[in-house]
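Researcher: Sit down with what I've pasted below and flag anything odd:
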Amino acid sequence: MKKESLEKLENIAIAITHGVGSVWSLIIHTIIFITSFGLVFFGIKIEMVLLVLTTILSLEAIYLSIFIQLSVNHQAKALAGVEKDIDEIQEDVEDIAEDVEEIAEDVEDIQEAHEEIQEDIEEIQKDVEEIQEAHEDENETISGK
């Protein structure tokens, strides 16, 4: 069978499983059972009613168990897909966490470099002030002569 046909059959099986698990299914089955036993009042032997009813119920149980298993298999396949997606997301989160750690280290390095540059600027500023003072002293000495 083609993949599309199998998917249609799986969807039908899932729909039947959902339908059987509904209140309407309960109502319909109750009506069928009451009607079946009511056939006795129309002259049909109880043994015949029970035989037909038992056969139908047995076949229904077999098909329902197959439909339920198909539904379980479908859900398992869907869960496997979700599990794969979760694993991929978890790997992405781990990669992002590593990137954040690297960025944090880079920020620390930049802060340290900034502090060093700030210290260098302060030292240069002190040197400039000392040179200016020395130059002023030199000018005073020269002008004082």
In short: The CA atoms of residues 105 and 111 lie 10 Å apart. The radius of gyration is 43 Å. The mean pLDDT is 89. The longest helix spans residues 46-144.
